[in-house]
Write the structure tokens for this entry.
Amino acid sequence: MRAFLKYTWVEIKLFLREPMGAFFTLVFPLVMLFLFGTIYGNEPDAMFNGYGTVDISIPAYTAMIISTTGIMALSITMSAYREKGILRRLRLSPLQPHVILAGQVVVIFMMTLAGMLLLILAGKLVYDLRFDGRVLDVALAFLLGSVSFFSLGFVLASVMPNARTAQVVGMVIFYPMLFLSGAGMPLEILPESIRNFSKYLPLTHVVTMLRGLWIGESWSLHTTEIWVLLGMTLAGVVISSLTFRWE
Amino acid sequence: MSSIITVGGITKTYGETIAVNDLSFSVEEGEIFGMVGPNGAGKTTTIECIEGLRQADRGEIQVMGLDPIRQERQLRPLLGIQLQQAHLPDNIKVWEALDMYASFYDNTLDWEDLLEELGLMDKRGTTFRKLSGGQKQHLFIALALLNDPRLVFLDELTTGLDPHARHNIWDLVQEVRQRGKTVFLTTHYMEEAENLCDRVAILDQGKIVALDTPANLIRDLKISERISFQVKGEWKSGALEDLPGVKNVQRQGDKVVVLGPANGAQVSASIVTGVVNALAEAGTQFSDLRTEYPDLEDVFLTLTGHQMRPERSE
């Protein structure tokens, strides 16, 4: 346990020392929040069923953070660790292989959580954030969304030959999804044709589920999302456990 | 003395390439055992099979009586390993790396003492990225010694280091052995093997071509001298090969190396004269002629018929 705590603590410090990862996980979502919060404020809006821009943006930006850490941070870190031989060095220690991997997931999860908590804090302090859901429901949805995207990240880390390719492929997946899934901007402002396409993006399901539970909708409205994300998690775990390489 | 490592007939192939071909040897407790040979001779494959990082296709390996693959978990804490290709995260600080790796073991040395001994104390807060090549290697040695292992593996420890840094590392390795540890190292610097190792296995194309103490290997050559010089233009080795006392003539580009004769100081004087005379008679333009004592490089040359590397390191 002491080994696991030391290892994850060092990895957290390393995450925060990497400017890109820390910026996109912790700072960029806040920048978005303040930018659109300043432009639109958080007045109740009929387009959002009486919620304000900030109210609906915070669960959406949370989904954005999940996809950033899963698709980008996790896959790039793991590919770079493999490419450079850092995984190799770790494996020479008595630390068990599954502990090495679990540590990475735990660190990325904690950073994702920190990103969301910062958003909530800023929303509460500055924009009088409205939350009508149940904390436990949102926490579970956050967990499911995170796990599904982390498993996608692991698939990328497993099949990409190096960190550079992982980064490029990660961006190719990430950016369109950011804008078309409702994570970066509300689906309501997108035309119908794009919204039909959005249904096929995994991130859309995270956004829909988080926004729904945020305003107090019941889980029964989100069975599609649950199945899609559970399926994605399962597929990701199977694929990456078959293809993951240590060197 | 008892064997701490026994290797019995291991073979490892990668596709069509035979990396290691039916190797057998043993390493004794408390010695510095070196494996030398050119790149691609199979040194790293061999060391990684012994470390349990790779599985040999055939053959048996025992390390302290344990199987490195099947009994990896028992063996891990007893081994100290420095890898040829290993790395730490760029942004990790020296103390963090040691503190973290120390937490992975039940029994460890005090890492602050290790830092002190390895001369890294003033670098404890420096990130890995900012260390020099030599400092990185010192840190990897510290990590390899952290768990106070009985057996330390050092793979190509000094490759890419300047001579000063290399000599520092040699001193360190000597100290490690003085603490009663067994050291298994690989290198492609013959000079390093000669200076550092109690016994040396010379590897070429996946096979051991010789295994003994450096002194014995050189003595068994029965050669007292190496003459090397540069030639310009057309040149045939025939005239030199026929000279009395000459054992071997090798040409690599413009450089010629003549080995000979059988031990005996008096004959040795005459071979230089003979070589110079023969060159002068043939009208060969030569320069940079020097005579040296033979070393492990010459052992390799004589046993395999080719040089370790196109150029000597000196």
